[in-house]
Write a structure and sequence with these properties.
Strand content: under 5%
Order of helices and strands: HHH
Number of helices: 3
Largest sheet: none
Low-confidence stretches: none
Shape: elongated
Helix content: over 70%
Distance between the termini: 44 Å
Structural class: mainly alpha
Length: 95
């Protein structure tokens, strides 16, 4: 039974961690954007470009997994892409 549900439970735990960390990033970004000015504009541009880049990397990775018969690994790998980006943003915005 663990073999069947193991990857899904791992993904579930990763999604919870991602969600908690993403909420922190949202709060930090809102504070930064509330100041306005040039830094706010730069952060907005960075936010959009990072999201698009992370989405592209996740999609390519998932397509590769599916094409090579490893489709069950695709969701976990996509979560990892987003987790790395969110963690990097949390570190950068916390300074």
């Amino acid at each position: 039974m663990n073999a069947l549900f193991g990857p899904w439970l791992d993904n579930y735990n990763s999604i919870i961690k991602l969600n908690v960390e993403a909420q922190e990033v949202v709060s930090l970004r809102v504070m930064k954007l509330a100041y306005g000015g040039r830094r706010s504009e730069i952060e907005t541009q960075r936010m959009i470009s990072e999201k698009l880049a992370a989405l592209a990397v996740a999609q390519i990775g998932m397509l590769k997994d599916i094409a090579t018969g490893q489709g069950l690994l695709a969701p976990g790998r996509a979560i990892t892409v987003f987790q790395r980006q969110v963690s990097a943003n949390r570190r950068r915005l916390s300074r």
